[in-house]
Amino acid sequence: MKQSQMLIPTLKEVPADAEIKSHQLLVRAGYIRQIASGIYSFLPIGRRVLRKVEDIVREEMEKIGAHEMMMAALQPSELWKESGRWSTYGPELMRLHDRHEREFALGATHEEVITSIVRDEVKSYKRLPLKVFQIQNKFRDEKRPRFGLLRGREFLMKDAYSFNESFESLDESYNQMFQAYSAIFKRLGLNFRAVIADSGQMGGKDTHEFMVLSDVGEDVIAYSDTSDYAANIEMAEVVMTYEKSQDAPKQMEKVSTPDQKTMQDVADYLGHGLEAGLKSIMFKVDDRYVMVITRGDHEVNDIKLKNLYSADIVELASEERTKELLGTGFGSLGPVGVGEEIEVVADHAVEALVNVSCGANEAGYHFVNVTPEKDFKVNQYADLRFIKEGDPSPDGQGHIQFARGIEVGHVFKLGTFYAENMNANYLDDQGKAQTMVMGSYGIGVSRTVAAIVEQYNDERGITWPAHIAPFQVHLLSLNPKKEEQKQLADQLYDQLKSAGIEVLYDDRKERAGVKFADSDLFGIPLRLTVGKRAGEGIVEMKERASGEQSEVDQSEVLSTVSEWFRQ
After folding, report:
1. Is pLDDT above 70 for 312?
2. Gap between the Cα atoms of 51 and 58, Å rounded
3. Using one digit for the tens of pLDDT, what is the confidence trace for 502-532?
4. CA–CA separation, 182 vs 515, rounded Å?
5. Topology of 47-237+401-445 in CATH?
6. 253-382, which class in CATH?
7. Counting Cβ atoms within 10 Å, is residue 296 exposed (0-12), middle (13-18) or buried (19+)?
8. Between 312 and 45, whose confidence is greater?
């Protein structure tokens, strides 16, 4: 491709709203342009990269027998109401009405659509297992789109679905997808981890996220310092054992704590550490109100609370509703004297405590010398806190460390959730109706492009892995006005193209400094520069990632370039 004929608008300055490297570089190098908040267009060289990532995804999906299709992005609300997600998915689902006032949603995901298709078309066990996938734009009304392609309102996604006869068969499909995803991200050259995760709004159980390690990642990964264990921090199990304090319980006492707003304020005022106080937080769990108690130095994990109750929705109770129930706001909450209409659940660490402090459900007052079960009742104890660095690893090997990650893929065992709600059945070998068992598997394709840039860049621009770059070679003619330079560059361009090498030919009438700067920004793996020694048939070759340079005779350029890519 001749650069003078392509739409590749580069920028010298970093866009004001671009906070992270991938956003900055993809915009500056002319790969993407923002159309609205969280909505981007891929320009020609950006589309080339996107297509190469898609091709790797397709190849690995086809290796495990998944077949590509394309589903409608505009989905009738009736399907979502069948599954029950129309009322539970949340404001991220983009909803609209047509001219006849019928309700639709723009596809955030396609479980409902594919389930409706398969239930109507697949009736026999002989057609199972079945695996299909698509690569399509998805739409989610993110509250705060940010970080360029990492959190957008429209994005390109590969979603796949498996339909199986049994949970054992689902395990096989899930493992195939898991291995395919691992192969995809390895081929893309990414440093990633597969971590235990929460299924969230997708439903189902047993799920893993594929996380690209990056300091700009919005997710925290808990991993063992001596084993392969890794989990999303929300799902990491706490396996610590707590020894019961041997102190004799004292008489509970109510004390004044004026103007003490936070746990740390109260602990300092009362002269004890955070671990000697109780943290009490009110949640609305579906239609019930639950008070969750943790040690003062621990944080409540609402995902664990949701899973404890198998709830659809878990949210903090409003302060207004909390005052109606307990007579006080958030700063003075505690479990002492709580009525039966509110369930009290506590983290395992609380069970070992003796003579601690807690809110007195009266503004400006706390109780001291409080002991669980003596001074208040707990409906049940469970693992309800976030794991901390230094805690024992749940697999029994080593201790927990934290890292940040960008989620690029997610695999779910959905089970029968959608099939039961939407009547997706098949006839087994005895002619009896059985419920299909499903899996769902997604890769954020456009997000993966950004994740690659986060791991492959330097102070000058992007440093693409060779097989993902928009072109293999960037050919520069420094002064096309000089006949010997233009002639040699033209010859090399034709030779490289004829050999099947993807080459971007910078034939523009620009200063050499501009061409070099743009070339570094683009991140094309190999640069060939035709300059002052063109009359001697000498070409400069430079590797983008390493910066290594050499001079090559024009007669050896093709063989040298071909060998470089073979290696």
Report:
1. yes
2. 10
3. 999 999 989 999 999 999 999 999 999 999 8
4. 37
5. BirA Bifunctional Protein; domain 2 (3.30.930)
6. alpha beta
7. buried
8. 45
